[in-house]
Amino acid sequence: MKPCNIFQLQRLSVNDGEGIRTTVFFKGCALRCQWCANPESWSFDPQVMFFPHKCTGCGNCLTACRHDANVRNSKGEINFVSANCVDCGACRGVCPADARQEMGEGMTIAEVIAQLKKDYIFYQESGGGVTFSGGEPFLHPEYLRQLNEACHRIGINTAVESCAYFDFEACRDIVESIDQIFFDIKIMDSARHKQYTGVDNSRILANIEAASKINNNIIIRVPVITGVNDSTENMLALSKFLLEKTTITRVELLPYHELGLEKMTALGLPAVVFETPSEAKMEELKQLLREQGIEIISFR
Fold first, then answer.
1. pLDDT tens-digit series, residues 239-256
2. Which of 59, 240, 256, 271 has the most CB atoms in a 10 Å sphere around its CB?
3. CA torsion angle for 75, 78, 84, 88 (degrees, to 10)?
4. How is domain 47-101 classified at the architecture level of CATH?
């Protein structure tokens, strides 16, 4: 089995499922959500990220880079031209301030398992385990299949966080065997979904409907964003879909946060700022879903 590009192993996580967990972040995603917290997960390949607030302006990167991806502007500041970057890593190797970081490393299944074993006792004591995230883990079906099986062989509970945009038939057996699944539903209106994420939601909804028939431990997560998907209409459409088309009745509402903005800038991508809903608005939406027969849960 070839290595898979992983951009982070987050240990001692308590927000990605039951108990204490390790979250394994895969690179590669078909969606381009404008509010994405992990834009470094979009590309399947390793990438260099530039954090200008760390830059000392020493100029080492200007000498090392042969592709004009690092330039000094009229103010003497060094700018990152992401369109020219070939991710060779030369600038990262000479940066004394760690202003450039490599996101993504090829890891074998054995290497990932070795890291997971370090926290095995925490999984057992807390009822936790490993959560596969990203990116989209299901875009690596054979690797995910074997990693899930390897975890089960040594008694590690598995969960996956997914945008639900993948080839369902290629992953049917994985969907069935994963211990817990978190599927995102961003927006119910297909045209608005495409406007904000780059794809319509027809495959996503079809996959969630199909998955609910073979896995009874699925939770829907909704990143709630003011003016994007926080309307009564959207929430009623969500509850109608779940109750009429699936067996899923559990939903976690997550207020928008700005953790992805710095990463967008570091990758040379346009950063779009959205508004976080108030606590009162979040409670209003939760109550609305409860009235439709939806159970609201939280791991935070």
1. 999 999 999 999 999 999
2. 256
3. 170
4. 2-Layer Sandwich (3.30)
